[in-house]
Specification:
five-stranded mixed sheet; alpha+beta; 2 helices
Amino acid sequence: MNKTTKNKGKTNNKNTRKRNIVIFIVVAAIILGSLYYHSNQNNKVLKNEYTMGEVGYIDDIEVTLKDATYINNGTGIEVTFEITNKRDNTITITPDDYFVFYDINKVQIPNKYTNDKNIIKKDEKITYKLQYDVTKKELYEIYFYSQVVENNIKFSFASRSINSDINESSVNNIE
């Protein structure tokens, strides 16, 4: 073996080693960048129970209980939710399927309010109202079912956080 062949071999080994180091650094940077990006994408705290004003997350739907008001001289309650559809497709809200409000005996109380809009497109946010005939109690709970398997989240609110409605004209009279 002559001197030129030895030097070529050393040069090829150095070039191969440098190229492998560069490839390793690029791949590591891509992997770390991807991990950082995905870890910051879902900063939402997922839990099963929320209070008034907290944003609840379930199956790519954001739901917030915005307000609760006593109606019909205190014999009913109206709750207002804000719903944002983060799914890739449109959802159609059916009040008594998506929202479940129980009485003291765990019997579902039907919603009495008809919303103008039940269809929520991708990335759309709507305000959704519900009305129930209820007796006054200290704590109220309403469940939101996402219609994916049996997933649900609960919104709890105390009677002290409920407004009294002076203007009864907002009541929807359904018989």
